[in-house]
Amino acid sequence: MKRIILIALFLMCIVGSASAYQLYLSCPDTVQVGLPLKCSVDSNFPAGTTFDVAFYQSGYTATPISRMSVTVQENHATMYQLFDTKGLPGGQYKVEVQFIGTEEEKLSSDSMTWQLPTLLDRSADITITSPMSQTIDEALRIEGSITKLGNEGVSIKVRGPDGDVFGPQYIGTKNDVKTGAGVFTQKVTVTQPGDYDVYFNDTDGYIGIKTFTVLAQGTTTPTSAPTTAVITTRPAMTVPTTLPTTTKAPLSFLPVVTALAVVGFLTVVRVKKR
To answer: Could you please report the per-residue DSSP string of 65-98?
Structure first.
């Protein structure tokens, strides 16, 4: 009886192993912030099987960042997924395969469905001193420094709306005797407006990315604030077109007669005295 039970268990194990499918998710342990996180998926699930590959920021709670759908092909070739890490903070992240149906129940015990990559952030070592927003006639000035780089030089690559416009190429840096930083300056000619990503690398690898905005034309900034004229309105004054003339009243007739009588009287008196 025991022998029959053992044979039955053995057959069940064989059947279970035959019906299980393998899936292996693989991601790099570390990647620099700004570079794509490239993960691969290998599986022997039947062609047409679809599942999601989700990218999370790991912590006390998982914060979803992006999700991509993957479908197994007939040739069962390795499938690759790229996750953008531009602008993400450094730290630990999680990539996980999530099934839509009941396929997860068919997985073999040795399948690997999740990974914990770490994003390394060195972008804080880059200090930009030229304007991050420039006009087309002065662009593109890339000036700044990198912490503790000295005069070792730095490799930069500039990518614009239509692709790469410069590099990757090493440019010289000058040692800042006070801080030990490597000071750099580079002018890259661009012909159209848009956002331009500048990638920085040194001998230790990728450092970070800085994005410049190039404007189509300069904006005119007034030198002084515009003033508003205040106009006060006074009540209109009516001015007569013709000034009034003063009319002298004629002398009264009685005073004239009296005066003539006095003059006649004085004349008579003078004649008698003679």
So the answer is: EEEEEEE--TT---EEEEE--TTPPSEEEEEEEE
In this structure, are residues 152 and 173 in contact, taking their beta carbons and an 8 Å threshold?
Answer: yes
Cis peptide before 244 (omega within 30 of 0): no
Band of residue 112 on the pLDDT scale cut at 50, 70, 90: very high
- This prediction has a pTM of 0.59
Last residue of a domain, one of 87, 120, 153: 120
Q: Do 110 and 24 share a structural domain?
A: yes
pLDDT at 60: 74
Q: For the residues 24-43, what does the mean pLDDT come to?
A: 94
- Residue 166: which of 190, 144, 148 has the closest Cα? 190
Give me the domain span that covers residue 149.
123-215
Give residue 34's pLDDT band: very low, low, confident or very high (50, 70, 90): confident
Bridge partners (DSSP) of residue 197 are 159, 211
| 114 and 133 inside one domain | no
CB 154 within 8 A of CB 240: no
Q: Walk across the sheet containing 205-215 and list its strands.
A: 133-135, 205-215, 194-202, 154-160, 163-171
Mean pLDDT of the chain: 81
Beta-carbon count within 10 A of 134 CB: 20
Query: Can you list the positions of beta strands (E) in the chain?
Result: 23-26, 30-32, 37-43, 50-57, 63-71, 79-83, 91-99, 114-115, 118-120, 126-128, 133-135, 141-146, 154-160, 163-171, 174-175, 182-187, 194-202, 205-215
C-alpha to C-alpha distance for 41 and 31, rounded to whole angstroms: 18
Residues 25 and 109 in one domain: yes
In this structure, what DSSP letter does residue 139 have?
-
